[in-house]
Amino acid sequence: MSYIISNGQIIAKTAATLASGQSVTFSGTRVAEEIHAARQWNLVNAQRGTIGNGKARDAKWARLEDGRMASEINPGEFFIA
Fold first, then answer.
1. Could you give the CA distance from residue 21 to residue 23 in angstroms, rounded to a whole number?
2. pTM here?
3. N or C: which terminal CB in the chain sees fewer CB atoms within 10 Å?
4. By the 8 A CB rule, do 57 and 26 touch?
5. Phi and psi (nearest 5°) for 34?
């Protein structure tokens, strides 16, 4: 499990295990891909974040009231449900 971090805050947790510091994009809105057959979805109004791992992140996640989960819809692109 990894965490998506933006501006020093945990945005969401993901089941994907990625390297800490990796740059990703995330959004709470997605639309169906109509042109590129290898992609099923596109993110709308995506923002940039980084991946964070470790026990310190686990502790912060446990204290969050609104812990959101993110799923990887394309390599490096996460949809937050």
1. 6
2. 0.87
3. C
4. no
5. -105, -20
Q: Which residue has the tokens 């709308």?
A: 44
Q: If you count them, how many residues does the chain have?
A: 81
CB of 65 closer than 8 Å to CB of 40: no
Give pLDDT tens digits for 37-76: 888 899 999 999 999 998 888 888 888 877 899 999 999 9
Could you tell me the pLDDT band of residue 1, with boundaries at 50, 70 and 90?
Answer: confident
Secondary structure (3-state) at 28: coil
**Residue type at 30?**
R
CB of 13 closer than 8 Å to CB of 3: yes
What's the gap between Cα 56 and its chain centre? 18
Distance CA 14, CA 24 (A): 12
Residue from 9, 80, 81, 79 nearest 50 by CA: 9
